[in-house]
Amino acid sequence: ELILLQEIYTEAIDVWSVGCIYAELLGMLEGTRTEDRGPLFPGSSCFPLSPDHKHKTDYRYHTRGKHDQLNMIFNLLGTPSEEDIQGLERDDAKRYIACFAKREGEGLRTKFPGADEDCMDILDKMLRFSPKERIPVTEALDHRIFIDIKDTRKETTSPKLITLDFEREPDLDEALLRKYFCKEIRGYHPEVPEL
């Protein structure tokens, strides 16, 4: 969602992040090739946010770029379906994704041959291109992978969704967000100056 500059995103973006971190942990399992340990999608550029410095405005270069972040994702997971592409909110993002060569992807199993089926199942559900297709947080927490370690007697739940004050701000922009971050930091480090 962030790479494609989607303005509206949900907690599904965090599920993707957790999936990437979980994949790094799976990379430590026996049987994983040494070169597959580390970030799951180790791209070095990503148009338009961090384009290759030699080809800053050439988006077609990035669709073919070996180290482009989206190419790394598509090489492993495959290119998104037409339905997933149409689910994007920006027309320029839809056109951009359509420029990538269609492919199936190597599949997550190729990276983690030592992981069991439950590990692969939850990873696959967390790393879906469409945020609507990703496993919801509550469902992920109830996944069978946690059966042996989860103790519901020790769990607490909030009676309502937690919303932070700044999330209700109608004109939240980068400058205001920085102000809120600094305010929070000053709670622990009063020496930090106000913006």
Automatic annotation (TrEMBL):
UniProt entry keywords in alphabetical sequence: ATP-binding, Nucleotide-binding
For this protein, what is any one GO molecular function term?
A: protein kinase activity
Q: Give the superkingdom in one word.
A: Eukaryota
Listed name of the protein: Protein kinase domain-containing protein
Q: Which lineage is the organism of this entry classified under, starting from the top rank?
A: Eukaryota, Sar, Alveolata, Dinophyceae, Gonyaulacales
Question: What InterPro entries does the database record attribute to this sequence?
Answer: Kinase-like_dom_sf (IPR011009), MAPK (IPR050117), Prot_kinase_dom (IPR000719)
Q: Which residues form the Protein kinase domain?
A: 1-146
Gene3D superfamilies in UniProt = Phosphorylase Kinase, domain 1, Transferase(Phosphotransferase) domain 1
Alphabetical list of SUPFAM superfamilies matching this protein: Protein kinase-like (PK-like)
Matches recorded under PANTHER family: MITOGEN-ACTIVATED PROTEIN KINASE (PTHR24055)
